[in-house]
Amino acid sequence: MDAPRIIVKPPGPGSQQVMERDKELVMRVMYNYLPVAFKRGEGSILEDVDGNRYIDFNAGIASMALGHSHPEIVEAIREQAATLIHNSRHTGYLEPYLEVAEKLRRILPGELSSGRVLLVNSGTEAVEAALKLARYASGKPGMIAFMPSFHGRALLALSATASKAAHRKRLTGLLPPTFHAPYPYPYRFPGPPEKAGSFTLQYISSMLNHLAPPDDVAGIIVEPISGEPGYIVPPDNFLPGLRKIADDEGLFLVADEVQSGLGRTGKIIACEHWHVVPDIVIFAKAIASGLPLGAVVAKREIADAWEPGAHGTTFGGNPVACAAASRFLDILIKNRLHERAAELGRRLLSALRELVEEVENVGEVRGKGLMIGIELVEDKDTKKPAPKLAAKAITRCLEKGLVITKCGESTLRICPALNIPEDLLWRGVEILSETLREFKT
Ligand SMILES: Cc1ncc(COP(=O)(O)O)c(C=O)c1O
Questions:
Q1: CATH code at 72-334
Q2: Closest Cα to atom 8 of ligand 1
Q3: Per residue in 4-23, pLDDT tens?
Q4: Please, what is the end-to-end C-alpha distance for the chain in angstroms?
Q5: Atom of ligand 1 nearest to the CA of 152
Q6: pLDDT in tens, 375-416
Q7: 414: which of 3, 205, 323, 372 fits an S-S bond (Cβ 3.0–4.6 Å)?
Q8: Does 161 sit in the ligand 1 pocket, CB within 6 Å?
C-alpha cells in the first residue's frame, strides 16, 4: 500500500457508520482515542473503511513490532492453523510452545537464559501469573509497586497498577496488599531531576523500615521504562538500586517488559540498558505480532517452587500464537531490529528535541529506541499537563495521515513498528512537527 492518502476528512462516512453500530453494541467502558474504523494494515500503513491511509506511529499500542500482516508472520499463522489450531497444553505437549520457550531463553541475560517459561494470553495475565508466582515462591503476601505505573486491569495486576484512579473505582477494598513508591519521573521531580532516582530508592528503604516489613513483601514489580504513565525513562541509578534493595532484603525483582521488551527500546529487554537481570520477566504485546500471547520467564529455583496445578490456562501457549511468536523472534534476531530501533531512536530524539526549543507547549522529549514520548504542557514554567492540546494534536495528525496516540496525561507516544521504513518514519515526524509548530506561541 502507498501512503499516506486522505480522501475524506476522518471520520469519513464509513467510519461514522461503524462508530454508530459500535455505540449500540459495545459496552461504553471501552474508550477510544481515534474516531476512525480501520479495515486493513500493511507494514506501517493503516487504511480506514473510507479508503484513507495513514502512517502508523502506534503499531497496535506497541504490539505490531514487524508492522501489520508481515508476510512471514501470515505464513507462519496459516501453516500452523492448517496443522493444529488448538489443543490445550494441559491435554498434551506442544512443540510450538517449546520453540517459543527456547527462543526466549536464548536471548535473555544471566540466569534467565536457563529459566523456566510460562505462556499465557495477554500482558495482564502474564502480570497476574508473575505476581502469583512471586507470592507463592516467597510465601509472602505483599508487593512493592510504583505510582504511576501500569500492569493491567485484573485484580492482582490492578493492585500493582497506579495509573488512573478510575481503574480502581469500586474495587479498592478488593485489591491485595501493595505498597506504592513514586516512580522516578525526572521531568516532574520537585527538585534536581538527577535526584529523582535516589529519592525513590530512599523512599523504598524507608517504606521497608516503617510500613512494609520485608518478611511480608514478596518482591518489587517495575516497568524498567514506564509505558502507559507517559514513556518515562528513570535515572540511571534506579534499576541497579532496585536490584540492590531486592538482593539485600530478600525480595524478587519482577520486570514488566510488556511494553518495553523485545527490542522496542534498543535492547532485547529494557533492563539491559542498566545491566540489571530481574528474577522474573514479563512479556506480551509484540511477542506474537498481533496474536494474543503473554510470557513469564523466571529464574529456575523460583519457577520450580510453583507446584503443579497452582496455576493453569486453557489457551495460554496456543499453537497458532506460538507459531507467530516463534517466527517473530527469528525475524527480530536475524535482522537485529533492536539495534535498528536504538539507532533510529537516537536520531529521532535529536530531531524531536528541537521542538522543545521552538514550541512553548513541548515540555520534554524523552525515550529510548522506538519508545519515545513528547510531553505537552500548558507552558514551560508551570509544566501543567495539557490533555486538550494532546487531543487536538492527535486529531490534527489523523487529518494529515498520521496515527498517533497519547500516554500519561498529555504525552504523545511514538511506538512504530521496529521495521518501519525510514521514509515513512521521517514523513510521520514531519507531520507531527508541523502540527506541534502550529501551537507555537
Ligand atoms: C507495562 C504493561 N504491563 C501490562 C499491560 C497489560 O497488557 P494487556 O493489555 O495485554 O493485558 C500493559 C498494557 O498496556 C503494559 O503496558
A1: 3.40.640.10
A2: 123
A3: 899 999 999 999 999 999 99
A4: 37
A5: 6
A6: 999 999 999 999 999 999 999 999 999 999 999 999 999 999
A7: 372
A8: no
